[in-house]
Input
Amino acid sequence: MAKMTQESIADFLHCASVLEERAYLLYKNLADKVNLPLVNSLMVHIAYDSRKHSAVLKGISESIAKPKKQSKNCQKKLFLGGPWTVIKRLVRDIDKEKRIPKEDMPSLINKLMLLERTVSEEYYILVQLKTLQYMTKEIRETYNVDLEDLKDILEIIIRDEETHRKLLSKMKKILVGKEKQTEDIAPTFKYQNPDAWSRVSPNSVYENAS
Output
């Protein structure tokens, strides 16, 4: 993520809010097409988490800087376009099916796990930016929220994304059995040591999970 101004951070968060709303619709649509009650319920859980994230990110964005106009071309502004492309392709694939066959689910889950990892990494990088302090001026004056409060809010969302990957891993275990389950949970983020984990290339998210 390049050096960002207050306005560009607000724009980034607005686009992140739009992405999370699309993730909600993706998970909800997928849940409706999965004929496995436990997997269905976990998908719904992640869907509504994503909707909550969308609302929170939108609130932060509009508290930092009121958008002069609707943000355009979020695909290029957000995460180098990687997660945006993944969601579009997954929506396209899921829309083709009335029901998702059980044998197709592990591959879909792999793509969703990489999607969640890439998104949470970008939020984590934002938390580490020194320019984050510029976000808090208007929020502090209006809501008495300081930099640490804002970081805490974003880190809650990051932890939710990690929980989503764990839930997806449990779904995969349900589908393929423990003996075939590979460990594909990314390491828990070390907030004080950003070099302790490696970054996923957004452009490889969809292809590598195929």
In short: Helices lie at 6-32, 37-64, 74-77, 82-95, 105-128, 136-143, 147-176, 205-208. The CA atoms of residues 14 and 59 lie 9 Å apart. Residues 6-184 form a domain with the Ferritin fold (CATH 1.20.1260).
